[in-house]
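User: We ran a pulldown and think these components assemble together. Before we commit to crystallization trials, I'd like a predicted model of the whole complex to look at. Sequences follow.
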Amino acid sequence: MAPGLSEAEAISRAQRGDADSFEILYGLHKRRVYSLCLRMTGNSAEAEDLTQEAFLQLYRKIGTFRGESAFSTWLHRMAVNVVLMHLRKKSLNQVSLDETLEPQQEDGPRKDLGVEDSSLAGSIDRVHLERAIESLPPGYRMIFVLHDVEGFEHNEIAEMIGCSIGNSKSQLHKARMKLRDLLKSSRAEKALKR
Amino acid sequence: MNCAEFQKVLPDMLEGAKDAAQEAHLRSCPACSELVADLNFITHEAKRLLPSYDPHPRVWEGIRAQLEREGLISEVPVTPHRMISFSHPAVPWLATAAAMLLLAFGGFLYRRDLVSGQNLARVGTAAPTLDRNRGVLTAQGPNSEDEQLVRQIAAENPSLRDTYEDNLRLVNAYISDAEQSVQQNPNDEEARQALIRAYDQKAMVYQMGLSRSME
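Assistant: Here's a predicted model for the assembly, 409 residues in total across the polymer chains.
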């Protein structure tokens, strides 16, 4: 970045077609956009393609950015829409939103045989959590990443993916439950190896 | 209230306050209490996940090529801030720190590639210990190089201080987690890859600081 060039100035210059400034914006935001794409798709090749598409859209649309929201929020929303469009094309979201978890016991939390019955706190780190998120079914992963990782509200998610707020809440809860199962299984497997 | 009734209202309860019946059930039911603790833990940890992954340089190359094809830009020159010289006189300590970090990380990769099979386990646990002894790669918290980086950045642009402090804190925590995973499962390739990514990210934070200081 040129001395003293703020992000706002880089945005302003990029809006006037300055490619160097656009590259600066890419450098500032590539990690967050790529991480979002990777977490939502679980596939690095797709995530690279989608990151590329998100920044191409950014270049084409940056002239319409008026600063009503933070630039990072605006870009992030654009990236989410690129990913969702991609998932729609793959029809994954429809399949996944209708996904149901395996039947659960009605009279209490499910108990997995061989899984030690103790809280996850203290025994699970971020590496395991990242891996478990990758293992979630695509629909659950999408809702979980959007809400719990990226911080979108249910009304925003419902609007973005075209479902009801109730559906978003319900899918999120199922995603968290599934994640808990995955983490407990992972911990049990680890214990067996020792 | 039994467990089934409790779990029916659980999604809403997690987002709001608990009523007396729910509180009473939680106190009397270890299974539901543990379930709530786990879900709260997952939610809390998810919020702390880093934007941990950097795209391969080919992504930018692809963007640039596409913009050129569309005639939106002509050839993009290499910008000065991307040209890193470790001999820059203004920031010798930062250059040294970044170089040591990259060398240590490179050494970790090199030794990792040299060995195979059972030896991998030994190297997997040995590398972080060695790195920790070198000081620069201390993963548990900020070290003197981290603090120096933050001071340097803050001197040039005070508004970036918090960002760099946050980045270093998060990446140190990520390294710590990844180290722990490798130590617990030395043969787990995914854990090892996570550790490599974590070191890579710290090196990148230093590189960013270095390039910023040389502008």
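Chain B touches chain A through 60 residues (CB under 8 Å). That may be worth checking against your pulldown data before setting up trials.

User: Thanks, that helps.
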